[in-house]
Amino acid sequence: MMKSSLRSFGIGIFFAGAILAINNHFDQNTSASTKTTIKSTNSDQKGTVVIKKAELATLKAEAADAKAQLAKIQTDYNNLKTDQTTKKDSVKTYTLMIKRGMGTAEVSKALKTGGIVKDDAEFERYIINKNEAKDIQIGDYKLTSDMTHAEILKIITKAK
Fold first, then answer.
1. Directed axis angle between helix 149-157 and helix 120-129, to 10°?
2. In Å, how far from its chain's centre is CA 124?
3. 3-state class (DSSP) for residue 17
4. Most CB contacts within 10 A, which of 12, 32, 78, 94?
5. Phi-psi region of 103 (alpha: psi -120 to 50; beta: other; left: phi over 0)
6. Separation between Cα atoms, residue 96 and residue 147, nearest integer Å
7. Residues 6 or more apart in contact with residue 37 via CB below 8 angstroms
8. How many other CB atoms sit within 10 Å of the CB of residue 47?
């Protein structure tokens, strides 16, 4: 997604520059005193571009602004990429062992100890609110920290 955004931004800058160049080329109302002429190596008029000094300054300012925006986008993209790599590395895996007689409080506390849920009381309330406390099954369950409460509950209440 970020590559396509950068690519679209670059294409937009290119088209804006092209439109300004074409507009300046065909503008017949320019006075000779405000023109800067850049000639090619040919002595004839082919390859000559005429730009007003004020427009040249505006174009330079816009180009500097576009470069600054592009640098910010690239920095944001690199930071986002680094954050995603860090998040992928920080997913914890835990094997929950539910034994006979364990209640929702013990299951929730074990999940918090294993780093799967952040708040054991919140997960316990979730189980009770869903009326699934009686359906918790004995067994060993492999869980990860990126699972939602609903996914965890579905796994530990499914009969093996």
1. 60
2. 33
3. helix
4. 94
5. beta
6. 13
7. 48, 49, 50
8. 10
